[in-house]
Amino acid sequence: MPENGRTWHFLIVEDDLGMIRNIEEILPASVPTGDTAIAEKCTSFDDAQRRMTNSRYDLLILDLKDNTADLSPVDSDPPGVTVFQELKKYRFTPVIFYTGWAGKVREYENSFVRVVEKTEDVSKLREAIKAVFATRLPTLSKLIDEVERDYLWEFISTHWQDTQSHYEQSDLAHLVARRLSIALTRQIGEYADGLTNPKDADPNKSTIHPMTVYVYPPLYPARMAGDILFEKDSNPKNYWLILTPACDLTNHDGKYKAEHILLAKCEELKAQEEYIAWEKDKTKRSSLEELVVNNRKGKRSIQHGDKSVLFSLQRDRFRFLPGTYFLPDLVVDFQQLKTVPYGDLALYDIAASLDSPYAEWIITSFAGYFGRVGVPDIDKKAVINRVEALLAESAAAEPESPPDRGVKDEATR
What we know:
Elements: E1 7-13, H1 17-26, E2 36-42, H2 45-54, E3 59-62, H3 79-90, E4 95-99, E5 113-117, H4 122-134, H5 137-159, H6 166-196, E6 214-215, E7 227-231, E8 239-242, H7 246-249, E9 260-268, H8 273-280, H9 286-292, E10 299-304, E11 307-312, E12 318-321, E13 330-341, E14 348-354, H10 358-371, H11 380-397, H12 405-412
Parallel strand pairs: 1-2, 1-3, 3-4, 4-5
Antiparallel strand pairs: 6-14, 7-8, 7-14, 8-9, 9-13, 10-11, 12-13
């Protein structure tokens, strides 16, 4: 997705024509270098609502009232706020309130809703517009629209007309949701990788970004297998992973199957011996990398009373979960387990949910670890000694090769 050469559409809601001209003058210098700004103007709030219903804009510059209205500090619902609330029903569009009544809308301010006082220099408005574009949210929103548009034209226009019944249309509707999700994940993922390093935006690479492992915030209020919980009263947070199968947590005709929920302890990566050793000496990287790719090896010495007990670290016992801005790097330990009554889940908050197929992967990993069948090790020395003895016996039993008659007959001539 090119970063430059885009056209950005602004909607200016302002009844002061002189103010509109001032805003239009700063727009070319407010958008990213190489991009173009196009502004539509409307002088009434009713007109603004109609336009937002029928058109898509990349950024809305919005006054709170027109010059004919009397707005006192006790008024609770200025016309501009009504427009803003209506906008949220239609689509996502960043907003800059440019008004003399900034105090009325400070509560809405965040990364994509900015507030600028009209009493300030118009350069402050330009800075606010630049700040919105710096979040990359307008670019991301435009990219989502482009992916959706291209997909609908290329796929839906071809296949939807082939449907003969409501059942087939229902099938296609589900297919649209699945394929569009995949398309968005791929193309937005490439864009997101390029934000940190353009060299990372490789559609053919075999690795994934940590964010693709999780669903955040979780989509459903009910707890599911693969949910990462933390104890509400813990500080620092104690993390646990739900291992109870999802079907046992689902409400079937008002009934549940799981009276007790199985949880696995999730320890932070920074508390692991491999991390601590690497933090002290950056050359000790290999053991940390082995842990991160779920190939943990080595031994661990644990003090029990006056003696030290040595334990081998089983590779299948641990699973690494990558950190994000809402979750630290975690190591799931399938030996540290506990069960809690179903009602006690209220004592935990949810940090994130593992997305598919990672939720299924973690459950099958746990089942494989605890379901494995242990057998004694075969005596490898005995096996090799037997093979060597058989080879020696075979060599001794072979008859000597007879002389080559052809060579002897040639010599006697």
